[in-house]
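#lab-general

N.A. 3:47 PM
ok so I finally got the sequence cleaned up, no stray characters, all 723 residues accounted for. can someone with queue access submit it? mine expired

B.Y. 3:52 PM
send it over

N.A. 3:53 PM
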Amino acid sequence: MRQISYEDQLRALKFSFSPRLSSPVHVCTLCFHAPCDGSQNMASESQTQEEDLYSPSESSTLFRNGPQLVLRRPVYSERSFAEAFPPLSTSKKTDGLCSKMGGSLKGVNCTLHSLKTLIFQLFPILQWLPKYRKSLMMEDIVAGVTVGILRIPHGIAHADLATLSPVYGLYTNIFPQLIYTVFGTSRHISLGTMAVISIMVGNAVENAYQGLYGGDALLSPPEDEASERARIAATLTLMVGLIQLLMGLLRFGILTNYLPEPLVRGFTTGAACQVFCSQFNHLFGIDLDRRIGPFSLVKMYTQFFSSLSSVNTTTMLISILFLSVLISVKEVQDFIGDRFKWPLPVEMLVIILGTLFSHLFKFSRKGVRTVGNIPSGFLRPHIPSLAHAYTLLPDAFTLSVVSYALCISLANIFAKKHKYELRANQELLAFGITHSLSSMMYCYPSTSSLSRTLLRDISGGKTMCCLAAIIVVAVRGMFRQVTDIKKLRRYSGIDMLIWVVTFLPTVLLGLDYGLAIGVAFSLFTVILRSQRPECHTLGQFKDTGLYGNIKAFADARLIPGIQIMRIQSPLYFANASYLKQRLSLPEKTEIHRRADQLHCSNGNDGQLYIQLSNHNKLPVDDHQHVDPVCVKGQSTDDRSDDHPLHTLILDMSAVNFVDTVGLNTLETISQEHLAAGVKVHLAECRQNVQEMMSASGLVKSISSEQIFMSLHDAVLHSQGNSR
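B.Y. 4:20 PM
back already:
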């Protein structure tokens, strides 16, 4: 084989395949590099030689756009590339105990050093606390006290949603935060009560309590119902913690990937409706039964409207007053945004005013309900009983996933904003440890809030309508998420459907059914989209070695005798049948019928186009293996007679996995084309796909010599063999 001169390399810039050479030459015209020792004179002379190959206008455009690259190498199939560049050994080794248990301890051996690394990863506080800057202490103290004051009324109010005494809401706003500080990796989120989680806890506690002591239950109701509900909530918290610990050890943090943002926002908006309606009895002073299960909201509204005659006027007026104050202040704060660093603690002011008015005007004598006294101090720690855990298991699993999803989504926002690493599985372990330990202090399941800190022991009398107003205003931001429908409709109808399908069952059927239906529907949309994936016919951009969808780019031209198809999804059992149909050869009579209608004509630019006999350009049909493009300089007879389809190239760059059904389909497609005299080549196969093909032995008609490193390699090889 003769040595290729530099002049030949320059000429290869004009032609992707040079018949003068004894083998195909792959040329990439991205930047220019002269094959010399760096002499500027030679580079200048080389540029002059190349300019002679182009017209003045082409040469001016080429070198005005920057330097060019002349790349000369053989066409590589997977086999030839492996022979030229042997890969590293891919033999699988048995993972040690550390890698199995730690996951994040990749490459760490079971040594003293690995033990130290494990301790630092399990206790992130050991990493950041020694580096804490004392200059930030005063600012952190001021922020903590300010935000803590804002969150005290939330702890009291949310406990009512959980059907618990207010003190347990305060406990939940203290202990989880302390424990998470030791084990968590997020620097910004903090754990405590939240309206959505609180009402889910309330439903779970109510279900368990009624199952144990209500109706036809064998057990008699306890004397202290509040304490029994607190023990049930503590058991629920322990179960949530154990489930999250197990999920963390098994590295199941990826479960939140199946809770897309439209689903979460639709679910929280539906939960906000549940929270809002649960406060009607406190806002209007009406005795309403707490209902759970499907259509509980419909039944509650029926009872509410039938009880309007018993509305407590004093309670309703107080509710309207405090709602007006809270909404007005919140709207002003939202309007001024970041102009003021510290927000006005309006919730705490409402609590103080409500307590003062209740004492001065003796609201309790007028039928206005009050919270009563909140005991001081803490209860003695205890280990929750798991005797009746089976009744709480479904709710515990739902709460473990939802609380983690809400936490990690908020943590990711702050981590990206402040550019630090967040370890998702460590977060899952941290939540599991937090819930497991806080259950011993009678805390109920918690989740993250934008800002929360330590709370201290308080006591006194508060009006329930005051707390109900705080809850209603707290969820007003969730009601604003209804506008998501309009936004989603603009760019993704499927995401809009996920939002709506999650929201409606959450409102009508309940939180557990709503979440389950939302997850099932979102997974169904993924399967549906992958069941009928996009499969594009690609054409080549002139003299570039680049390829694009012929329906998207007018300059992408089909190559005579070669059909290039790009599969835009995994190849597996759900879409194998559809892809087989898309890639099957058309009927021979149809090819002949269409070929008889074709003829070429010159356009204004001198390029030849295929047209129908009525002079309309032939629309390209992805299902037809008919070459609708004539190459410049070829006649009609040369195009239709001398260049029949001889090669099908499948661009596998987007196929990230295959299964046995997909491999069998690939073999069927290859055999079908081979029977018709058409070769099948693959391009840009991922390593795991090749390993599956090799290990299974299901694809026998496509060898490693027919799998190419790039799409252009496959095209050049096909053109070379057809000459």
